[in-house]
UniProtKB/TrEMBL annotation:
PANTHER family: CERAMIDE KINASE-LIKE PROTEIN, SPHINGOSINE KINASE. Residues 51-235 form the Ceramide kinase C-terminal domain. GO terms for molecular function: lipid kinase activity. This is Ceramide kinase like. GO terms for cellular component: membrane. GO terms for biological process: sphingolipid metabolic process. Pfam families: CERK_C. It comes from the Eukaryota.
Amino acid sequence: ERTCRSTNVLAHTLHGINHAVTATLHIIMGYIQPVDICTFSSPSKLLRFGFSAMFGFGARTLALAEKHRWMPSNQRRDFAVIKTLASLKPEECELSFLPLKNSLQGSQENVQWHTIQGHFLNVSIMAIPCLCSMAPRGLAPNTRLNNGSMALIVVRNTSRAEFIKHLKRYASVKNQFNFPFVETYAVQEVKVQPRTKIGCNTEENVYLHATSAEGNYPWNIDGDLMEEASEVHVR
């Protein structure tokens, strides 16, 4: 069973508690729970499988933390969050997604791709609710374990203060999506196409290259760092 790195979102989501003994007992007792899992692909190859992904703030925070692995884990995480917030910048990209078919739409042929463009501070794609200590209700509380859907959570560009308010909501009982700059969609597939770096000014290039290899954009896949330069197709 994969626990999805330090936050243990898979185990926490499956068992309702972040407790190793509980997870072990479920395994011993033969408890089986189907869960949705995503594939992440570039135009030319399959990149990996995963349950959750973040592009933008969540990915750049992880990329910065990975460059400071000599620091204790909690200190490294806090440092990366503060540093990324201090240099907060949106990603310009195009998001194409196939909405989840509802019972009134009939056949799959009637479901059309939607596209949105703009500057986004963070894009999250979650196949499971992703409960963790930092988000007791889940990073995507409206998602189910195995209904074939993903939650697409889009945070458009806003002020640093408003973005921090949004982040703090994850740790509370308040709705973290109740902001005018946050959009949520139930989807079957998502394509994320970052803009080319051609034309970036010097300050933007410093920000882009400080957290990832040149030519690549960082992704946070279940707490693992993935870097990819081209479009990523999630389904």
